[in-house]
Please model this.
Amino acid sequence: MKKLRLEDVAAKAGVSKTTVSRVINRRGSLSQKTIDKVEAAMSELNYHPNVIAQQLHTQQTKLIGILVPSVANPFFGELTVYLEHALFLAGYKVLIADALNNPEKEQRYLRQLMGHQVDGLIIATHNSDIEEYQHANLPIVAIDRYLRPDIPVVSSDNYAGGQLAVEALYQRGCRHIVHTYSTNPSNWHDNKRERAYQDTMASYGLTPMTCTSSFNDSPQEKLAIFSKLLEEHPEIDGIFASNDLDAARLLSVARRLGRRVPDDLQIIGYDGAQATQELVPDLATIVQPIEKMATYAVETLEKRIKGTFTPSTTVLPVTLKAGCTLKELND
Amino acid sequence: MKKLRLEDVAAKAGVSKTTVSRVINRRGSLSQKTIDKVEAAMSELNYHPNVIAQQLHTQQTKLIGILVPSVANPFFGELTVYLEHALFLAGYKVLIADALNNPEKEQRYLRQLMGHQVDGLIIATHNSDIEEYQHANLPIVAIDRYLRPDIPVVSSDNYAGGQLAVEALYQRGCRHIVHTYSTNPSNWHDNKRERAYQDTMASYGLTPMTCTSSFNDSPQEKLAIFSKLLEEHPEIDGIFASNDLDAARLLSVARRLGRRVPDDLQIIGYDGAQATQELVPDLATIVQPIEKMATYAVETLEKRIKGTFTPSTTVLPVTLKAGCTLKELND
Model:
């Protein structure tokens, strides 16, 4: 499959290579007749102008790199769809990388992305201590991650989300509320959710209790941790899980152990991705404004690319989605 | 943020631009001392060689475009992760596009991808009647979609999957088995699943019954269709849903209507994405070998790019994952 060249179009249209190039780039004076002739030839040959050559000229690639932990996770899948769509509307194409919680892959990928001369990066991975971020000299926006003082962050309100979750459980009668979350040294947002949990529990005079697992634990290991938690602590009557995958696992474990949800045990998750809400419609959760996070991230990145002013942090409000894993609230 | 140029490296290393270029492309005779000097300068300046300029030279971009309906769907999210990872290991970067069941977006995107001179395309979208596919003169592999006689297809065994699903329900006592699926004129795989359903029902002497919805129905519309189905047909004792999202919706509708699953009603879905299995661990499903589909698609595309022989169709086996939505099988 030989790639078509400018020469082929020129021959077909009966004009010079320079004329074809001028038509593609709309440079110099061109008669409509010439434009029509060249475009007809391009269309007939199914020739697409070489954007790469244009890039060398403009020093812009119109490519944006997006790094996420994994688009197979419904939250990051949905975030990527909205980012990609907003960037598409702004004239950009997206290079996607799933870091898979593997710092080495992330590092290699970052080096290569910079080699590909992307116009900017959107970073939503967990490994913020990668050295490349400290030296990168191109526009970057981080989603929910602190990378460097001069890299703007777009996130949802993790502190308010943690507060909302604990309040919802407390108002429905829970007094033994556990918070489950995944640990990661640079996992900025969970710290805020956890801090909100601690503060809100203290404000109610309740004793906090946390159960941690690691991002790298397998689904089986997570299930074992959660079974042990519920078996060893029959007094637990409320769970605030830091993400919906863990909340769904806890719901499944609770049902298997014969705990009645929501009568004896209430559960609230975090994230509220569309696919998760469809797959587990019963689950109460704190819904992050995923589409808004994506559009603000793209807006901020575009401003960075243009060199105009941006906020260093943009925090967007979250909402509570009540579900059958919470009791109905009696007013 | 000014982009660094070859000149800057040359000045720093105290050599000519040509020498820097020769070090980057490893061309001509170079002393180790010169290589070290130039690489030290590049590293110190945090300069990344301009891959775009190299691309013009080699006529390869090392970019592959992937078109999927939406990475927010757990099946396509997982497929994309595996495709991206296999391509990464093969030295390619991925341009991702979510067509969102919008043929116009898909068409515009395709035109632009061709303009970006990708080395190849992997297509997993539903809109196979887009004209661009008929004229595209670059290596393409389709996943589970028929596009054109000379475009190879990698898919899982949809006919065997349909058969496995109906057999599993029949062996567990179901005699009124409905098949739910989404309609789309070019939706190749579902036709095979549906054909297998029809054939297997006929082989058991059972009357087939299908319930169709559209890809573009909202979650609410789907729930309404499924509620109506179960309310109007209390005799239904088995459901074969063509995808796990619909199966999860049917499970939720059945529970709300007080149908006991699996005692009175058994359900089996299709796809078996990891995130879905984690979110709805109870659901029985036909598991597609998503990782294998991705690696075979990438292998086939690499062969196309090199111009070597490939099968026109590669079909990979599926497996049954029994779950609590099916009764235990008594031998």
Summary: Residues 41 and 94 of chain B are 30 Å apart (CA to CA).
